[in-house]
Write the structure tokens for this entry.
Amino acid sequence: MLTGQLKNEVDKIWKEFWQNGMTDSLSIIKQITYLLFIRELDKQQTLKEKQANKLKMDIIDPIYSEEQRELRWSVFKDKDPETMFRLFRKENGIFDFIRNIGADGGIFAATMKYANFEINSPKLLDKVVQLLDAIKMDDKDTKGDLYEYLLSKLSSAGINGQFRTPRHIIKMMVEMMQPQPDDFICDPACGTAGFLVASAEYMNEKYSDKFYDKDFRDHYNSNMFNGFENDTTMLGVGAMNLQMHGITDPQLMYMDALSDGNNVSERYSLMLANPPFSGTLDYSGVETSLKKMLRATKTSENGKTELLFLALMLRALKAGGRAAVVVPAGVLFGSTNSHKALRQALIDENQLQAVISMPSGVFKPYTGVATAILVFTKTGTGGTDKVWFYDMKADGYSLDDKRDETIDKNDIPDIIEKYRTIIDEKIKADFGIDRTANNFFVPVDDIRAEDYNLSFNLYQEIVYEEVKYDNPKDIINGNDKRKGIRKLDQEREQLMKELEGLLK
């Protein structure tokens, strides 16, 4: 749990960057991430040294040699600012060391070759190092909370349509999908790894006893959490986020998930994602099987990232694998061949379970676009008999750019409860049959009849209340219930005469 003290300590660090002219949120997070990595390397070396001393043997796979001692956090943090700054910037110095540490240091280390040291003054470096050193990070919960708070400061969308999914939306999707201990979880556009981290937190909460099992721990630390990312900065941030949450060797890959180089199929049992959906890709570079699934007649249709990622998820899931994915509302009703082909594949070739429409303000201040969550299971043989629709009106926050918390207006608990009712098949006879409500079932034949359109409003029944108006003659002349306009005019004229008399 994020404490006020931890939040204040991070805010102090953030303020130091701003006061020294660094105002880009992502740049600040990158620099703090590099420093946290350096601190973690020194901690790992210290543990190796203690183990070696205890066993009275040489250090196994040391991170630093004796000649590199001055590059360690515990050493350079006590240097004067100018000396520390030189150690970072000099050839074969601290930053060169972490940039060249390679894959042996884990997935995050593998991304460091793309890193740039942007801290521009000895004073700023020293101040940030001292502030970070003062934060006690002895457990993964504190580390995770610290990093999550850092990531919450990302406030601008990326150039490829990337933006950070609100944590409460991620948590809702994870709670709905209920990750299992034997799952292979994947986010094909993982960004900061929010879905993977939330899944790990769910696993720790629901299956804490499993961590006594070595086989499960090995699976949890190395195979359970998977992701693709084509932005090296985001890959590094996501990898650090997972490591700060105690996941030592996540399977994150630097690659374009949609390109010809990715032929992953039937590998994962659970997909959770909010892939980019504001742009298009070069048609020629898209993986062939994805283009075939979309059956487009124009190359521009095939380039829609939201459609391509859905096609990728269907291919990458194992038979019986589940998915929950955020899509722009246009996916629900788009009229292109690709839109229709994808919706038809979800319904006729697999099992579409739920369509949850979300209000347009959920992703502010990043974007005001309306979105929805699609929940489906890969079967390859169909199985959709009815689809559950839910129209979310409130997510617990105001729907403007401020996004202030509004506890009394929140549909998320109701969505989770009702979805679990569906999954557990504990449905009462009257559940989901009222088309005038904010949630209901729609039989698959009704959806096919509407050309596979998945818009909530298309299936909702609107009840109009009849409004009765008085007869116009009664309005003019009046009746036993009301005065008419003519009578009111007479009274007004009489009052005017009396007023004029008083003024004489």
In short: The first strand starts at residue 185 and ends at 187. Confidence is low (pLDDT under 50) at residues 157-161.
